[in-house]
Amino acid sequence: EKGGYEHFMLKEINEQPKAVADTLNPRLKDGKVYIEELNMTDEEIIAIKKICIIACGSAYHTGVTAKYIFEGIARIPVEVDLASEFRYRNPILEKDTLVIIVSQSGETADSLAALREAKKRGVKVLGIVNVVGSSIAREADNVMYTWAGPEIAVATTKAYSTQLIAQYLLAIQFAYVRGKISDIELEEMIRDLKRLPDQIELLVNNKEKIQKFANRYIAAKDIFFIGRGIDYAISLEGSLKLKEISYIHSEAYAAGELKHGTISLIEDGTLVTAVLTQEELYQKMISNMVEVRTRGAFVLAITNEGNTDVERAADYVIYIPQTNKYFTNSLAIIPLQLFGYYVSVGKGCDVDKPRNLAKSVTVE
Ligand code: M6R
């Protein structure tokens, strides 16, 4: 059932081009985005005053990414909450708030409890769910399925990637209906979305290079991930992927926040993974990379093709293909998933079933 792969995780990493295409294609028609399951009229979309995205773990990380996109292109304020925190802070939910619950399993206890809390307060809930017919799918007012197929490995990869796609589609649809993007911008975004599966495939095929690199870090004590804007969101996910399956301590930091804490932990040879895909934040990131490098860090940079001058501030570089600036997480995550995977394999860990973790967390 592993289809010739050594682990489910590697199989699922390889299934991402298809999972992304399957989630995307049914919602693109005649050069437009159609999300029938949303069941919202244009008037209702225009009336949205706030979006609350609620989830756990990696699904929460997709919400952190989505916040930048909903706010950036649709200009709708977004709050992102960990489901385990949401209910206990007496959240302000008004009539025109849209709650989005993101969950692969559809059974995560805290996410389900958050859904119930939102419904109790009379707010409309949209589920972004992978498992058809799961509790969250059944209880949400509307469900947008991610079509990743069954995910077995505890560390999510393909479900994560499809959760991003679902939220890109929503943000684009909301932006278009609210008159925040033009027909040409819409066309360009759709063109870039359609290119993602092939671009992801290209990055997945680069696995030997990542494996070699990962093998150098099997004995690492700490690894840091830094980024700004949506590259900070991807750093959170890269860090979780690594630590949950390799048991190496790792932290994600908004790069500008380094000097307020973590920089004191950088020693000679500490690996710092810097993601820099955003043009307007590029120079700031370079400065942060120089800061850690001066203190002995080994810097792995993940950046867009063409940014070759990054090599003056990095020790090792992975380039990702060009895409819309809001979609770069879908590409930058691939080398980070592979890195976590190969470090775990190299250490001889139980990749698909890391200790103390369950695929679906059904207790609060
Ligand atoms: O099934 P869910 O998407 O609700 O699960 C949420 C988290 O438990 C999950 O993403 C977890 O963080 C993964 N193990 C991360 O790889």
From TrEMBL:
GO cellular component: cytosol
UniProt subunit comment: Homodimer.
Lineage of producing organism: Bacteria, Bacillati, Bacillota, Clostridia, Lachnospirales
Function recorded in the entry: Catalyzes the first step in hexosamine metabolism, converting fructose-6P into glucosamine-6P using glutamine as a nitrogen source.
Active site: K359
Domain of life from the UniProt record: Bacteria
Any Gene Ontology biological process: protein N-linked glycosylation
The enzyme's E.C. designation: 2.6.1.16
Coiled-coil ranges per UniProt: none
MF annotations from Gene Ontology: carbohydrate derivative binding; glutamine-fructose-6-phosphate transaminase (isomerizing) activity
Catalysed reaction equations from the record: D-fructose 6-phosphate + L-glutamine = D-glucosamine 6-phosphate + L-glutamate
Keywords, sorted A to Z: Aminotransferase, Cytoplasm, Glutamine amidotransferase, Repeat, Transferase
Residue window of the full protein shown: 245 to 608 of 608
Compartments it resides in: Cytoplasm
Record protein name field: Glutamine--fructose-6-phosphate aminotransferase [isomerizing]
Domain SIS: 41-180, 213-354
Transmembrane annotation, as ranges: none
